[in-house]
Amino acid sequence: MLVCANFARAKIDESSFDAARVIQRDVAITGRGAARTYAAVRLREDLNISIIVIEPKNRLGGHVDTYAVLETNTTLEYGVQSYMQYGPTVGFFERFGVEIGPFTLRRLATINVDVEMGITLDYTPPAANDATEALNKWLQFVEKYDNLVEPDFWNFPSRDKIPMEFLIPFKKIVREQKIESAVPRIVTISGIGVGDLQILSTSQAVQAFGLAVTKGVLEGTFIQPKVSNSLLYQRAYELLKNDVRLGSTIQETERGSTGVRMTLIKAKRVLWIPYPSQDNLKAFEQDDKELQMFERWNTSVQYLPRKVEPSNHLAVRDHPYYLTLGTTGPSGLGLFRVMLGANYSVTYEEAKSVVTSSVQKLVEAGILNYTGHCEVDIKALSAHHGVLWPRESAALKQGFVQKLYSLQGHRNTWWTGRSWCEEYSSNVWTFTDTVLERLLKSLA
């Protein structure tokens, strides 16, 4: 093992630690998410690289969240719902003996209501055939740029060679391609465009809803584990647990030319998984190059802005937040899966307040078969927040992608996760393989 020494700004006094408690590894993997577990398995089991996983939660799984319905011996997924048959996905499930099957979407009668008033809207969503036809046109469009964005942006063109279509507003492409009927499905699945689709660039839309996911939607090839999404991570933990530190966070780091040193951990490289917010990185001793990049980041009831009436599909995101409620079963328990997305920061308490007041508006409007004040009981809650790439096309022209990817390997740190590629687990795993290939070469 490499002993990391001769740091220009030594802050960690190694002599203050019992030598028996100092962990030395080739790679320290920090953070949450699908990429972290996948990378740990690949590095340790396939590539013979020693690892240590630093996990803030008391479990592996990142955005996979499973709620056990105690009354019925069933489980409900309120995080990741399904997976694409893309890259190493199917093989990764098979590796852990997790049986998979087709993803089945619960069929619900949708009620469209005003996001502010809670009253019903006279909005007609696109017909299924129209949506499919529009998605096929979108497929032809994204197919042209697949090599630029999937599964990674290593080969993204320089500023003077970026396709002009990437730099214009998504709304303009929608109108030019006549694919308005695809918009509700695109934004619902990807979660993009909250607040106003007008400022969303086409490059962001392609990144969020590229070739793989479009094909998966059209061909109906999404999959899901037959037991629960958490089973994969439970079995992965059993394999990795000697090299996993649950409930742990980084308090202090040193990164130098010869390696990385964290409190009690010495590693040759760091593989960073969480989204790179200033809060997440506060113990990570950023240099000027990193600071310059990361400072910028920043029944079914569907709540919609009134502007969608009667069928203005491009207005479905013209509100600072979106909210959907969908019954999950089992029958008689009154359980709903709630999705709240916003273009501003929301605390857990604020999210609960939005959900509670929105449900009460449905009661007052007579949409729910209930009288009086409705008590909302939050059974489980999980935040799936992150950072978005700049939405302005000017950022691409200024070389944002190249500057971002130039951080790969900088100060012995490698980066993966949904902040660096398309955010679906299947894409993240595929992208992670490209990062591990480069990380491995740096260790040689």
UniProtKB/TrEMBL annotation:
Tree of life domain: Eukaryota
SUPFAM superfamilies xrefs: FAD/NAD(P)-binding domain
Which Gene3D superfamilies is this protein grouped with? 1.10.405.20, 3.30.70.1990, FAD/NAD(P)-binding domain
**What protein does this entry describe?**
Amine oxidase domain-containing protein
